Amino acid sequence: MTGEFIAPRADRILVTGSSGFIGAKVVEILLEYGFSNLRCFVRPSSRLDRLEIALRRFSAEGCVELVTGDLLSPDDCAKAAAGTSVIYHLAAGFDKSFAGAFMNSALSTRNLLDAFLQRGQAKRFVNVSSFAVYSNRTLKRGAPLDETSPLEDAPQERYDAYAFGKLKQEEVVHEYGRTRGLPYVILRPGAVFGPGKKNLSGRVGIDTFGFFIQVGGSNVLPLTFVDNCAEAIVLGGLVPGVDGEVFNVVDDELLTSTQFLKAYKRQVKPFFSVRVPYPVAYGLCTLWEAYSRRSQGQLPPAFNRRRCAAEWKGNRFSNQKLREKLGWRPRIGMNEAMALFLAQFAPRAS
Amino acid sequence: MVRVAIVGCGKVADQHVQAIRRISDGHVVAACDREPLMARQLAERFRILRSFEDVGEMLRATSPDVVHITTPPQSHYALGLQCLEAGSHVYLEKPFTVTAAEAESLIEAAQRRGLRLTAGHNHQFTPEMLEMRRLVEQGFLGGRPVHLESYWSYDLGDMSYVGPLLGNRHHWIRQLPGQLLHNNISHGIARLAEFLDSEPTELSASAQQSAQLRNLGGEDVMDELRVLLRDKSGTTAAFCFSTQIKPGLNRFQIWGPVNSIAVDLMSGSVIKHRGRSYRSYLTFLVPPLTSAREHLVNAKRNAANIVRRRMYQDSGMKELIHRFYQSICGRCPPPIPYRDIVLTARIMDSIFALIHADAKREAIDA
After folding, report:
1. Could A100 and B163 be called an inter-chain contact, meaning their C-beta atoms sit closer than 8 Å?
2. What is the pLDDT of residues A63-113, one digit of tens each?
3. CATH number of A13-196+222-252+315-339, picked from 3.30.70.100, 3.40.50.1910, 3.40.50.720, 3.30.450.20
4. Rounded to an integer, what is the distance from CA A147 to the centroid of its chain?
């Protein structure tokens, strides 16, 4: 990406969730772009290993400010947002309860936005959301899912507290954009993978019942390698003329669920898995959901039609808007990305 | 139909609304939280018609029959009193209040107004605890309880709970006299209080921090507690709270002069131990077989409850709420005797006083 950014390199930039899997990479790429006046916001209980590695790589331990706090505290938000012109908001709540997810997503975002508008010099707020906010219930299998696709309108029925939190977080950002003139951009990464994250995406299948069940197989995964994803987020905060826009973040040459699982088994460990075709999985989820409703939640509706569709239906994904409006190109191709992801696992004993 | 309001729309509020929906005699009419977004999200998800950020306004506008208070315990006393003064019955989440003095004062206020109160000791009302109580009432123990044991464990692996409180000295749990213990032990203590005849004449308590919590940055938070008590009649009791015991424990055992009962709330089972002796090697054969039969009976009962759709993760809360609403309608006494609520609070006060005294002594010694 060449050309002017909305913020000069001397501007104070805040990154929340900066010690996380994507956040630390965002910090690294900002430093690489020459933005060194960074403020990294972390929870007191956060492990800082990833962030420290990123800072050491650019010898930036001295110039990057580390702020510890809780985004549910307006005072901590004021401390974090003071004097900043761009905020990358990556801090995410992974609470299993709906109220907890709401608190850690929507409420903390509201606090941060209030502080940004009062104490910052707001040029842009980058809200990092998720593909989880989409509903593909009305889309056919294989149909394209893009930024104009419908959002989930019943996250409670999907039994997905994370999606609920992210949806509400987006609502808060949109509202502040509409009513308070907040300049913002929303990025919705797909399934982010890379070294440092070892678990298989739930979009491949589940291991709830003691063995791995692969759902579908030919469904394309909305993968994005962590470096590529982080660069898209960084550009979202800097490229002019995109205020109010939403961007999906997925890489090129996406793999199917079967391709991903095969590569994983080959490199990491062979394990027993059962493949359940999508229509069968959908039927089972329908039954599960019906029993859950009939029994008034004796069996929680963990498997339901909405979740089944969202995770395993199989749609096509595009990064066209990201390329056109942000000038983003994946810095690491899918083959190399997979090699880097798989390299983190110790080689199998022969 | 009992008209219900929820004050405090955090995580626990969801459990309350779901439990109320499972009984036929309750209807949630209002959600209230001083953070309006929290009140709105609960109202939106459960299609509750009205949401409020001010309790006074909510009480005036909706005049609920019952208010469920699911806020941090520091606000229980003031909110409870406010709701009672407005003429509503009150269900207070555990711990009932911060101190026993507050509990007594609140109960007195309710009695003065002819209103009902209950504490969120929902684990007392799980099917297996109800079965244990039925056996005790039928005289299975063969006399007064001789000894009681209560175990309660908590898994520190769930960082969504301990993470925020360890990272923030001002977290409401850190502000409680017993910190993490204060928010967790009331269920386990309430079981003992039910069978003790008076305030303990002897009580010793010892608390420490586990290595795991220390590694997580636990500062001054204690997560291992052992308590020994004796009441006037000589019944003894032991309580153990642990974050380290694996597999996790949620267990109550009561020994009488003839028989004893063990309740495992994790597996939903009640095991009866009969004080019978067997000749010779039969001692090694019959009791294990009897015990196996007991376990089978429990498995069969649980399977039947699942098929009949009676087994919920929060079945204790559903039962407690149902009984509380019945008592409001004048059909029965409050599900938890006020004496038990106060005794639970007093025992907790004594435990934390002892722990603080120990900590002070250690600090002076150091």
Report:
1. no
2. 899 999 989 999 999 999 999 999 999 998 778 899 999 999 999 999 999
3. 3.40.50.720
4. 15
